[in-house]
Design a protein that fits this description.
The structure is a homodimer of 405-residue chains.
Chain A lengths: L2 E3 L9 E6 L12 E16 L7 H9 L4 E11 L7 H16 L6 E8 L7 H12 L6 H7 L8 E9 L2 E10 L12 E6 L5 H14 L15 E6 L13 H23 L7 E9 L2 H13 L1 H8 L5 H10 L10 E6 L2 E7 L2 E2 L4 H8 L3 E7 L5 E8 L3 H8 L4
Chain lengths: 405, 405
Amino acid sequence: MAKLCENGICTPKGFQASGIHCGIRKNRTKKDLALIYSEVPCNAAATYTLNKVKGAPIAVTKQHLQDGKAQAIICNSGNANTCNANGVEIATQMCALCADALQLASEDIIVASTGVIGEPLSIDPFATHMEELVTKLSYEGGSDACEGIMTTDTFKKEFAVSFLLDGKECHIGGMAKGSGMIHPNMATMLAFLTSDVAISSEMLDEVVHEVVNDTFNMVSVDGDTSTNDMLCMLANGLAGNEVIQEKDAAYAVFKDALMDICTEISRHIAKDGEGASKLLTCQVVHGNDTMTAKKVAKSVITSSLFKAAMFGKDANWGRILCAIGYCDAQFDINCIDVTLQSAYGSMPVCVNGAGCGFDEERAVKLLSEDEIIIFIDMKQGDAKATAWGCDLTYDYVKINGDYRT
Amino acid sequence: MAKLCENGICTPKGFQASGIHCGIRKNRTKKDLALIYSEVPCNAAATYTLNKVKGAPIAVTKQHLQDGKAQAIICNSGNANTCNANGVEIATQMCALCADALQLASEDIIVASTGVIGEPLSIDPFATHMEELVTKLSYEGGSDACEGIMTTDTFKKEFAVSFLLDGKECHIGGMAKGSGMIHPNMATMLAFLTSDVAISSEMLDEVVHEVVNDTFNMVSVDGDTSTNDMLCMLANGLAGNEVIQEKDAAYAVFKDALMDICTEISRHIAKDGEGASKLLTCQVVHGNDTMTAKKVAKSVITSSLFKAAMFGKDANWGRILCAIGYCDAQFDINCIDVTLQSAYGSMPVCVNGAGCGFDEERAVKLLSEDEIIIFIDMKQGDAKATAWGCDLTYDYVKINGDYRT
């Protein structure tokens, strides 16, 4: 594993960031606008939601990333700029204002928005606060930027890792918002990654897609695939390594480091799912093939009944088997073993598809921990997969029964 | 529409039923065993869950229905007889005991179970109570039988319709259990239908599958497809109509009547979804094709975020559009209009894929009713579909956080 280090998106060389309150959110103590800036041009790659309803910023960002280059990312919270008549116009103006202030071309700005769908977004808060946002850019601004994109998140998700390439110390930094409407498909929620690694835009695009499939796309909070999911990565090359241009050893090192940080962010997005009291990690081993292992893992952490049982510390393993059984893949259900694990200990609950009896009191203690692992041995191949989710709680209902007010 | 009439499964000629407490459930005031009996042999058809984990009774019933004939249905609640080492043996013994008491062949008995998955089911309560169950058979026993299959249901679902074929008065009766783990695939929860119509077993099988696809398979309470879903219909021919042997006018009349009663049962299963406070009906019109219309309707009523918003009386139509957008079908999202309706009135919230502005106070009043219709005009074809669901409430979490204790 790459070395986890302090800070987030500003850990790689040459990246600055800022986050401010510009007035989109009514609560003045909450930041609602973030900026990430690289001092030199970057190769850039992104993945986007597969929802047919797409936020206007996604259309604009896709256009700006056609050349695989970018230098800054602007992102607001409090309004998703989606299903608005003039959404593309507003997103384009956000980029233009930001480009002016940074003395860049509009095409080098990536734009993203998160928040309520379908409410008009005025350009005014951006126009009146762009100078402040740019003035506040600093190497210590990562946390402010991270705060600026939070919605119902209860803690910041920012991480950084370091590793060596050609003897040069390289870094990847990342931040994300998660919480609700989390069931990524291809891309995910909002996540922004920075790196000082030198890598071609083709290889950057390749590695981002590979890693996203095993990390962000394996998270589910509520089964709802957002309209504004986007993951974007900037790599500015300032680490001084030899440019990665093919899938060689350096690519593998970079991919491992990216996998580590994306895994960490994904786990924390699940842990901070709306209303969540527990992180649920489903580890599948010995599956027939990777797709099957992934489907099984994701089916379990997506089941509302299983999620509610985990909230209630109820070792209702029948619901795990039920969720495995309805997932869309072919395998022999009668081979499957299920073991529950937590910091308290480990407990087999199902062997060869049938209950194996267990101590209910011990089960309650095991499930009282705040991180639960559901370990599934399919005993029919070599494939494995991990998915992350959270329990279904009263608070999820509370938060989403009255999100807009 | 066929005429709704009193009573349920005993309305058709020649059907008797009973329901008792035999000791599977600890609470002695709750019935846990039901029997439906036809005085003469019936043609029979069934649909089953597609979950790879299947209750043992399904294996036994499938075998007994190979000849398309049956004469009685026995069903217990309190234990699903699923993922037990000796499940098939127990289900087979249940049929044998029942056949003995009724003086029928075991192959003419249909068996079903519902309740907790993975706990051993003893044959003893059946052995000691079979005589009582058979003795209590009566033309007034439909409601007792209906009670015998309830789990977390809060009210009985039993209906009957009458219609004319060849000048003869014909009937269909039905009862079902619903509540949780409701997201049928091919078959659904448990539903038993009786009829005195004369129809070949081939045509009965055909009409059951046709109707189930538009009714039970369009219901979702929590997205979890049960391991024990089963719908079974018995037709004993005592109405005296000419036997339906092909898809003629009589088949159409029978299909319409069956559609009416299955629609009514489906609506009530959604309305009584675990913890539900509201019935949500999503009507899609002018879809490109039926499959697309169905997918759109089902995606909306399945979205946890939308369901929580309905509980909170929050007209958060962005979540409706989001759920339409991530469903797996091809269409133009920018054509779509969404209107919310209830007994209070009607209110367009989205026109051509964008918000159209509405009075929030009126919206709250409209959404305070206990039946809400989400009317979606896709404006791109002639297909239509309806799906039924319920809101996501604190009580759903409560019920499922501690189901087994």
